[in-house]
């Protein structure tokens, strides 16, 4: 089902994912916002292997727990579904390359600025554009901590396949082959969750050898078979997709729970 952007602020849980603006796109793959009351995380929705390194700012509903926790997650070929339910808000950034230590461990002054941006957004607005703008400002602060991007064209200038692999891994934290496999998995995951196409057709469209190949890959990365995942995802009408692109053209994916 589809829900409009004006409805999602009152939902129990939501996951929003935005494209990075052009001036951040060389460094940022996308940004995301998760507000959860334990519902989304309980079903391991959205907690799958990613080909990108990510940085998360976690805000618990319990103010007594103190400032948000900063968590850097390097890319991994596989990941087990999470068992920890989330009660609170997570603002996150997925990077196209392993960011420098200044971004992985930003100074207190930068974290204070980011906290101020996020808390202001939470107090005053839960509209799509407000959240997206807060994420853009967060990325701008983090990017200001990086030295000049002198390596942006290193991969294109690689003189051999071996050099290419070495430079790719130094930038991404993962070799080209598993990176491509993760990207293929993520594309198949999107089709499985958002369409009723036969799994055999999805496997063919995403260049798996056959449906069994896709099932093995899917179970390795999520702990579920594609059919199990689709059943869990669609078993409740409370899960709805938010796709109001007219208001927020940069919205890649939005999921809400009533």
UniProtKB/TrEMBL annotation:
Top-rank taxon: Bacteria
Keywords noted in UniProt: DNA-binding, Transcription, Transcription regulation
Pfam families: HTH_18
DNA-binding is among the record's keywords: yes
InterPro entries the UniProt entry points to: AraC_XylS_family_regulators, Homeodomain-like_sf, HTH_AraC
Ranges for domain HTH araC/xylS-type: 160-232
Protein name listed in UniProt: AraC family transcriptional regulator
Lineage summary: Bacteria, Pseudomonadati, Pseudomonadota, Alphaproteobacteria, Hyphomicrobiales
